[in-house]
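To: structure desk
From: M.T.
Subject: fold request, one chain
Message: Could you run this one when you get a chance? Sequence is below, nothing fancy, just the single chain.
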Amino acid sequence: MATTKAPEEAYTAEPFVPDRAGLTALREAAAGCRGCPLHRNATQTVFGTGAEDARVMLVGEQPGDQEDRQGRPFVGPAGKLLDRALAEAGIDPGEAYVTNAVKHFKFTRTEPRKRRIHKAPTLREMTACGPWLAAELAVVEPELIVVLGATAGKALLGSSFKVTEVRGTVLEHEIHGRQERLVPTVHPSAVLRAEDREGAYRGLVADLKVAARALG
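Reply: Done. Structure tokens follow.
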């Protein structure tokens, strides 16, 4: 008698994504996603937030420690820095839709009860989570996607994506069946880790100004 594989072993969120649903229904469904093994250790699913008619969608890598605890994307130090950079570039953070390519926090611990250390998701995990991002794009239909960092870029544009080669430029690609305009830049957490933090921050703002001009 054949044994049935656990849903996470299939590495796809597809069975969990409701058809033609709004953001509220998608968020509720995502809370029960078992489309890959990352749900096992995470506190909760961290779905995107923002208005259904947002003109710009910001796509990051995955939730961090604070996001995992609070259930909302970009609420930690990187999120605060991003809000400041957006405002400086002329984009109202409150009018953007913010999400991540991967909806569960992937981490490692050196010892029990020690701080949880971020671990980059694999291409397989990003691909598994792709149906959620496709559903968000179908609902929001943003005029522009701001790609935050290499992992988000790989999730949207393929494994050969290099943020250093295309940051601060307007790209046009078909993403999940829709023709999209995208502006890649670094992830705000990379700014926080940079030796020259002020220089890295100025670079982020410059890239976001390109996005602001693209929005018109």
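Reply (cont.): The longest strand covers residues 178-185. Let me know if you need anything else for the meeting.
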